[in-house]
């Protein structure tokens, strides 16, 4: 029992729906679940379907790492310590689920962003947590 | 359900009152409303108190400890920005149901210079904070994106959104309760620093302190107190239904549309019957979306509506004659009751230089993200 708590620091996702495979050669990906009755798809896991209320266990889905830019805002003023300006966005994934993210690799200028433009997910270690784990986050960039 | 009337309203000028406590701010508003009604605390059978940032601190009871402890039931309410309007609805249903003959609804908030709201605390290790990493949950960006979605659908421009700020600031010049009473031109708005594009500084509501109160009673009882009772024709509260992106990007449109449908049905009116609207312009972008959500213009026509000036006082359907959240201020828990005060003053013909002439039916709209929508349809009797 004691050895379980003494795990060496490793990599941890910033949110539970970002899955980090055990094999370091494999890329992290977004995980979702799909309702077997109505097909509604969600980020992460759920107890029941918010659309049709089915409580049947959902199907796990590995979400695409490519999507389309739905909308964005250029954030110039943020919480203390958050670098600005940056592009905050909603990206639609082909599985019918949307994700909130930063769009990097493009100037934070509305003229440089196009509705529906294809975007590609990238992941990186952004911080170290109190226990020494690497915190892995995702963002999107123009594809 | 019984017919319910508003017989007294009162609010304090929104602003910053660091030297006062929340019960003092709220107590002032409550006493103004009671005086306006011709009642005192012993006439009140139930209190509903809305306050968000002290929602664990028995604000309603503390108000009574300030203005009169009668032992009546107190309901403390928190529902994000819809906190005050939800308290109003609790008071309304307490009377409409037949359980109580009189009720006092109070909304209060003391925010000081709180800064940007939303985004959520990481709770625990800040290494897992998602703000600025996974987009933004802060309100300026959330409502920025909601506006950008309207741009995407209909080609609405930043300038059209900015015109909302020009209008509401202009309206505020005539409202002595407004936190700011400053006229701004279109260029001032567009050249102000960007908070979260397309919203610039003047397109974002301020934080602040404030309180507002309303006395409700049965229509039968109202006749004993006033010759100008205002009937609550509908009081609606909805939460966000499932829509495709709602869990990622709060769908304020479907939320408001569901509430509007229910409110119009309950009141037996349509949007064309409204003489004025106080709606939730927490950001300039939000106001245009709600023109369509509330059905006062056709889909995609909100930009044209502000271009034509139809929502100015004196226009086809005045919106936010008070100055709106953008100028009057948005002390969260107070907002939903303050909107009711504003509509009541217009329906009584007591709104001074900002009076919407001949107003008979008004609508007060509030949304709280997370999400809640309230609508109150008020009618001159």
- In total, how many domains does the architecture of chain A comprise? 1
* Helix-and-strand structural type of chain A: mainly beta
Can you tell me the CATH class of chain B?
Alpha Beta
- Helicity range of chain A: under 10%
Largest sheet of chain A: 6 strands, mixed
> What structural category do the secondary elements of chain B indicate?
alpha/beta
Strand order of the largest sheet of chain A: 1-10-9-6-7-8
Task: Summarize, please.
Chain A is mainly β.
Overview of this protein structure:
The complex is a heterodimer of chains A (143) and B (381). Chain A has 143 residues and is mainly beta. Chain A has one domain (10-142). Chain A contains no helices and 10 strands. Chain A has strands spanning 11-13, 18-19, 29-34, 41-43, 59-62, 66-75, 86-93, 97-103, 118-128, 134-142. In chain A, a hairpin with a 3-residue loop joins strand 7 (86-93) and strand 8. Chain B is an alpha/beta fold. Chain B has one domain: Thiolase/Chalcone synthase (Peroxisomal Thiolase, Chain A, domain 1), CATH 3.40.47. In chain B, 36% of the residues lie in helices and 19% in strands. Chain B has 12 helices and 11 strands. Chain B has helices spanning 22-37, 59-67, 83-96, 139-154, 158-172, 186-191, 219-225, 252-267, 284-293, 302-307, 324-328, 332-348, and strands spanning 4-11, 47-50, 74-77, 102-110, 194-197, 199-200, 209-218, 230-239, 276-278, 361-368, 372-380. In chain B, helix 1 (22-37) crosses helix 2 (59-67) and helix 3 (83-96) packs across helix 12. The radius of gyration of chain B is 19 Å and the shape is globular. In chain B, 60% of the residues are buried. The model of chain B has no long low-confidence stretch (mean pLDDT 97). Chain A binds chain B through residues 14-15, 40, 42-43, 50-51, 70-79, 82-86, 88-90, 92, 96-102, 110, 115, 126-130, 135, 137-139, and chain B through 116, 119, 125, 127-128, 130-138, 140-141, 144-145, 148-149, 152, 193-199, 242, 244-245, 247-249. Strand 6 (66-75) of chain A pairs antiparallel with strand 5 of chain B, so a sheet runs across the interface.
